What we know:
Layout: H1 2-28, H2 50-59, E1 62-65, E2 69-70, E3 74-76, E4 82-83, H3 85-97, E5 101-103, H4 109-117, E6 123-128, E7 137-139, E8 148-153, E9 169-173, H5 177-185, E10 190-194, H6 197-205, E11 211-215, H7 216-225, E12 231-238, E13 244-249, H8 253-264, H9 268-278, H10 288-343, H11 348-363, E14 369-375, E15 380-383, H12 386-391, H13 415-423, E16 431-436, E17 442-453, E18 459-468, H14 470-482, H15 494-511, E19 515-522, H16 525-532, H17 534-550, E20 557-562, E21 565-571, H18 575-590, E22 593-595, E23 598-600, E24 604-611, H19 618-632, E25 639-641, H20 642-650
Parallel strand pairs: 1-5, 1-6, 9-10, 9-11, 24-25
Antiparallel strand pairs: 2-3, 3-4, 6-13, 7-13, 8-11, 8-12, 14-15, 14-18, 16-17, 17-18, 19-21, 19-24, 20-21, 22-23
Helix pairs in contact: 1-10, 3-8, 10-11, 16-17
Amino acid sequence: MIKVRKKARKFIFFCCLIVLVLFFYDNFFLLEQHKEVISTKENKPVQLTEKEKQWLKAHQPVRIAFDGYFPPYSFVTEAGGIEGISFDTIKLLSQKLNIQLAIDKRTKWDEIYQAALDKEIDVIATMVNRPDRQFQFIFTRPYVFKSLVIVTHQDNTEIKQRGNLSGKTVALVKGYQYSQKILKEFPTITPFYVENMYAALSAVEAQQVDASISYFAATYFIQNKYLLSHIKVAAFYDRNSANESIAVRKDEPILAEIFQKGLDSLSEAEIQRINSKWYPPIKKPIDYETIQDIVYVFLAVFIVLVLWISQIKYQSRKLRVTKDKLLVTNRELNELKGNLETQVLQRTKQLENSEKKYRGLVENLRGEYFFYKHDLNGIFTYLSPSFTSIAGYGIDEVSSDFKDWLAEFASHTKIDEYKERFLKGEKIPSYEIDVIDNSGCKHCLAIQETPIYDDQGGCIGVEGLAHDITEIKATQERLHWLSYYDELTGLANRRLFQEKFEQLIALSHRNKQSMALLFLDLDHFKKINDNLGHAAGDEVLKETAKRLKAHLRDSDVSARMGGDEFTLILPDTGTKAAENVTKKVFQSLLAPYILKGEEYVLGTSIGIAIYPQDSSKGDILLNLADEAMYEAKKTRSGYIFSKNLQLNKLS
């Protein structure tokens, strides 16, 4: 108990330490520059392959377009030229890579996007990498990182975090994708639509609206350019919400690789030189929501810990009481058994003395034991008071044959056999019976009986001691179940899977049949655990097990191997049938999971090995299916056969 308390104190200390570190990070480093534009790499020379050099030589100049309405990243100046962080970065890359750039005159987003689709330009300097765009473009890793912030008038003290936007009037730019997202999240907002970010910030300056949602760097740039001195950044709305990459036409993959090498070669000094040109270090707003979340997490951990310690104390007290009670009861029981072995051999006269001696003891038995006597017809002649606490019946309610109280189980058919052997003088070992109490619940009793003789030595009845072992049996059955099944999902665990797998391999060998082994795990499962908590992760695992069993036959075996990994054994199943089942399982696991009222799509990766085509040994089949599963993560179909994987390696 002392060790447990020491561990608990250490756990509380480390939780507090983590919370303090996070708190100081968010509050004492607020003057650090907001580095949201370009990721950094160590300065290293650009090494182009001979193939890349030849491609550039044959395709100069490279046609590129900039979004002219995206300050300070790229925008059209009053003189008609292009400037901005993105422009300066691309210009630096062109020098490093020796690329001749032809800047397209079109600057409106819709026009340059369509021009790229029509192959009139090769590159768009900034574009958000979305799945629907990956069919037409190849993207570099993001080099422009943008965060949405909440901008208010400097006199506004009501809005300090996202939740304060409810019921407020907010300026939103027409056509911006994030505007619809904000309205969906806060339906009580009154939208005030404007044409651009400058108009939105001007509305805040003039106090026409309560707030505006804008990009962090763009806000600072516009504020300084147009001298909007009465606005402030009140809080972050969404960090890194729309990161920008260089987008290259899908038919020019070499050009995308060249630009990525250029981005990787940018040094810290070069990046800072570009950033500082457009804005100096900025004081970040206090992220109240993050602090609030940390406090909530700490409180939750603290409460759980307090409950855990309380439960340990309670269980310890209960264990001590039970232990003391058990010692007393066992001591009394041992005394009773020792005396019974001697007393039952004596005649009726001695039996009367014995009954007086022990009646006081057995009548005081409580909880798990009761003492009884019945004649040769099974009619009870005596029951100790503790019988009532176990069976729920009063002593005066029980006078009929003891068999009336038995549950209907096949094992009870041996009771008559025990009785005949008993009357012949044989010593019958302890046996178990099941009885039904007055509430309909079953109790399992361990019975130890001794015959009662009259003065002439004839057996006239039985006296016995019954021990209620219901909870002990339930615990044993539970432990046995847990040794073969996964407690969370109810599926077979690794131990049972291994036994079943070897049995089914032997059966398939004997019947000369094929057998399929599917090894799968859940995609993005770690994100669910990290973002929604382990309780949500447990719900995903239970729902996954349910979906898997829905597609299996009674002869199939499903198992959880650990974490988010599962296996399926399909006896008498060839390649084609295995692929049909795999497709059903794959589609089933693509269906959204409902977690905390939201839909989440995870998906799965499946590796398939076939017995005996791939191997006749279980451990090799399992390794092949596991290896194929990891390879399946790289395929669009989401699954792959081990045989195909081996062929791919050979090719």
